[in-house]
């Protein structure tokens, strides 16, 4: 539906912007696919997808758990519930050497502290240089390998001008570089980021790898998205508006969180 068509369809359900974002991200995970999951928002979305429309989704966490089926959201990759509910637990080197780097994982699901218009992700430093940053972030973990080797990468992140920047302060996880086929020239296996879902809308890359706004969540205006973007945002000719969360989706998501 178009923005005009969707504007007349109100919902009586109350939900937060984070819940809309998580539901939209979960909807993007369809079918019996393998998914390398980051903790936080990516884990919330992936587990919501698994417990609703995609029960065949295989969730893989960096700690070596294959096919985890947690009934609550894990606090970290070391949360025991991931191992207790997994189909198998293997070593961390085996996860990367056998599953990730050879291209056996369909989707990588990542978050970001900073994201630029080419989908490059920063989770390392903010401001200054590497030795003397204004803020030192948690770092890379397995994200660089996920961004390089998964079939494609979905990013879920809250949108603001501090997060969506013209150029990241540090490239932790390579997206599309500066665009125009840079991933292919570097010999990176995966397609890189193909979808960014925020609390405001949805973005997809154009043929040069620059992210373009293709969707808005209910009640969000284009001006609001532009104000929360640190570059001159390209907008698709036709903008879709997300369907609001259903009662079933909200119930499943809140149940996952309530157990945590």
The level-1 CATH class: Alpha Beta
Biggest β-sheet description: 10 strands, mixed
- CATH topology description: Glutaconate Coenzyme A-transferase
State the helical fraction: 25-40%
- Rounded radius of gyration (Å): 18 Å
Query: What is the tally of beta strands?
Result: 14
Q: What class do helices, strands and sheet pairing give?
A: alpha/beta
Instruction: Give the low-pLDDT segments.
Output: 1-11
Spatial separation of the terminal alpha carbons = 36 Å
Average residue pLDDT: 93
Shape: globular
The CATH architecture category equals 3-Layer(aba) Sandwich
Beta content comes to 15-25%
Strand order of the largest sheet: 4-3-2-1-5-10-11-12-13-14
Annotated CATH homologous superfamily: Glutaconate Coenzyme A-transferase
Tally of separate domains: 1
**How many DSSP helices?**
9
- Strand-and-helix sequence, N→C? HHEHEEHEHEEEEEHEHEEEHEH
């Amino acid at each position: 539906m178009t923005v005009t068509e969707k504007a007349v369809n109100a919902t009586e359900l109350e939900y937060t912007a984070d819940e809309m974002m998580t539901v939209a991200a979960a909807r993007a995970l369809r079918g019996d696919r393998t998914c390398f999951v980051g903790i936080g928002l990516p884990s919330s979305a992936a587990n919501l997808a698994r417990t609703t429309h995609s029960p065949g989704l295989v969730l893989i966490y960096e700690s070596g758990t294959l096919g985890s089926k947690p009934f609550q959201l894990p606090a970290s990759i070391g949360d025991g519930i991931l191992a207790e509910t997994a189909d198998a637990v293997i070593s961390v080197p085996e996860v990367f050497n056998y599953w990730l780097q050879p291209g056996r994982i369909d989707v990588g699901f990542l978050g970001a502290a900073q994201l630029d218009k080419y989908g490059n992700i920063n989770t390392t430093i903010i401001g200054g240089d590497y030795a003397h940053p204004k803020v030192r972030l948690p770092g890379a973990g397995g994200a660089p390998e996920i961004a390089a080797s998964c079939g494609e990468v979905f990013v879920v992140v809250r949108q603001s001008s501090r997060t969506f920047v013209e150029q990241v302060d540090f490239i932790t996880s390579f997206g599309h570089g500066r665009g125009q086929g840079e991933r292919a020239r570097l010999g990176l296996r995966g397609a890189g980021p193909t979808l960014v879902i925020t609390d405001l809308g949805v973005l997809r890359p154009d043929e040069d790898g620059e992210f373009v706004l293709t969707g808005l969540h209910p009640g969000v205006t284009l001006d609001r998205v532009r104000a929360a973007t640190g570059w001159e945002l390209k907008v698709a000719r036709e903008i879709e508006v997300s369907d609001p969360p259903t009662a079933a989706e909200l119930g499943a998501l809140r149940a996952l969180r309530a157990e945590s």
